[in-house]
């Protein structure tokens, strides 16, 4: 007998199909299926989602999930499922020295759908005691190639961090070498820039192309940001976007500035991807908490709801190589669904620099469905 879930009376928001309206969703076993009243009447679980949003299972595109392998790694399922997250991408926690262990021990054992970027520096981002060394002379090119061929699909690209404390004295050489490798191997690059002193954002963006991702770009450390002197978005960012470069807000504790975000949003420059950069010291704490909280922060700054949801569903699924399978509520897709409630509540969202933005809405996770099974339900949901 098929395991069926009937979600009824929900406000369905599915940017992949341009849908925002009240309706019902039906699943059978692990797939979303066209609604059929006879099947619905025999559903294993019936969830009355009146007053709630039903959206594709959320995707945290930027998290650190190497639990037990990194100082920063969080448990994916503990972090994700109660937050409506059914899939996530590890943002380069590990390089060639550890990514295989991550795939075998974390990806394979998680209830969630996981993918990862592989850091071009062998140790990756494994500790806060010292930083990885991005000297191109130390890139293990043979191992990078081997692991990409050994684990196709699990690794979705390469990762590089640059800027003060990361790449002092190396200039653009780490980026030039990383892009050379990524082109040769047909892989995109995810670039983290912070507190630039040796080159500009524009010079770095000039090396990125279609499918590459720049993360943490709403920051102003060292006086550099995506804004020009007039407070408008720099032409270099718009030109990069026109070439297919994608932008991941990844609003970690110290890697975003609300003043920069507000000015960029006012100028119409929203992120393509939305991640938390969650680590052990930020999950369920402070400025990050979890993905619905970060989504609420973007809403408070003026990003439209459909854009917020698209950034952590449809677009993220495409970059994971899973477009049409996750990140959508289209019949035939995997039955990964999040039910959220928008609570009207005065909120003060902060960054690490004393900036505050006032909001009036908070997204609260209610139910998470993964592969057609209810894996989390808020205790008061149907009481």
Descriptors:
383 residues; alpha/beta; TIM Barrel; seven-stranded parallel beta sheet; 11 helices; globular
Descriptive account of the structure:
The protein has a domain of 262 residues: Metal-dependent hydrolases (TIM Barrel), CATH 3.20.20.140. Strand 10, helix 6 and strand 11 form a beta-alpha-beta unit. The relative contact order is 0.16. The mean pLDDT is 95. By secondary structure, the chain is an alpha/beta fold. The strands form 2 sheets. Strands 1, 2, 3, 4, 5, 13, 14 and 15 form an 8-stranded mixed sheet that branches. The chain has a 7-stranded parallel sheet with strand order 6-7-8-9-10-11-12. The two termini are 28 Å apart. The longest helix has 13 residues. It is built from 11 helices and 15 strands.
The beta-strand count equals 15
CATH class of the domain at 58-319: Alpha Beta
Query: In percent, how helical is the residue content?
Result: 10-25%
N-to-C span: 28 Å
Protein structure class: alpha/beta
| Net shape | globular
CATH architecture of the domain at 58-319: Alpha-Beta Barrel
Estimate the strand proportion.
25-35%
Low-confidence stretches: none
Largest sheet: 8 strands, mixed
Tally of contiguous helical segments: 11
> What do we call the CATH homologous superfamily of the domain at 58-319?
Metal-dependent hydrolases
Nearest-integer average pLDDT: 95
Could you tell me the CATH topology label of the domain at 58-319.
Answer: TIM Barrel
Q: What sequence of helices (H) and strands (E) makes up the elements?
A: EEEHEEEHEHEHEHEHEHEHHHHEEE
Gyration radius (Cα, Å) is 20 Å
């Amino acid at each position: 007998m098929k395991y069926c879930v009937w979600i009824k009376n929900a406000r369905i928001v599915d940017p992949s199909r341009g849908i925002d309206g009240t309706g019902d969703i039906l699943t059978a076993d692990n797939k979303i299926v066209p609604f059929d009243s006879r099947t619905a009447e025999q559903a294993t679980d019936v969830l009355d989602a009146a007053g709630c949003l039903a959206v594709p299972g959320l995707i945290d595109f930027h998290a650190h999930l190497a639990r037990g392998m990194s100082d920063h790694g969080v448990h994916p399922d503990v972090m994700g499922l109660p937050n409506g997250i059914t899939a996530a991408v590890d943002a380069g926690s590990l390089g060639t020295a550890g990514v295989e262990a991550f795939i075998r021990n974390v990806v394979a054992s998680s209830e969630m759908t996981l993918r990862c970027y592989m850091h071009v520096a062998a140790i990756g981002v494994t500790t806060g005691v010292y930083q990885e060394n991005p000297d191109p002379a130390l890139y293990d090119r043979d191992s990078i190639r081997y692991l990409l061929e050994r684990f196709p699909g699990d690794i979705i690209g390469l990762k590089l961090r640059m800027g003060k404390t990361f790449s002092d004295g190396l200039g653009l050489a780490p980026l030039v070498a990383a892009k050379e490798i990524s082109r040769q191997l047909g892989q995109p690059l995810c670039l983290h820039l912070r507190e630039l002193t040796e080159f500009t954002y524009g010079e770095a963006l000039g090396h990125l192309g279609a499918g590459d991702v720049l993360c943490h770009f709403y920051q102003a450390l060292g006086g550099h940001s995506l804004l020009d002197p007039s407070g408008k978005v720099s032409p270099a960012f718009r030109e990069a976007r026109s070439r297919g470069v994608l932008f991941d807000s990844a609003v970690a504790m110290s890697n975003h500035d609300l003043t920069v975000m507000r000015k960029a949003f006012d100028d119409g420059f929203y992120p393509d991807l939305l991640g938390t950069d969650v680590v052990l010291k930020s999950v369920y704490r402070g400025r990050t908490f979890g993905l619905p909280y970060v989504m609420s922060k973007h809403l408070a700054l003026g990003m439209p709801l459909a854009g917020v949801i698209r950034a952590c569903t449809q677009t993220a699924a495409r970059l994971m190589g899973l477009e049409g399978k996750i990140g959508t509520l289209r019949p035939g897709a995997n039955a990964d669904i999040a039910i959220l409630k928008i609570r009207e509540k005065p909120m003060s969202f902060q960054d690490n620099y004393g900036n505050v933005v006032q909001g009036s809405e908070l997204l609260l996770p209610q139910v998470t469905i993964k592969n057609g099974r209810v894996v989390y339900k808020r205790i008061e949901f149907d009481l």
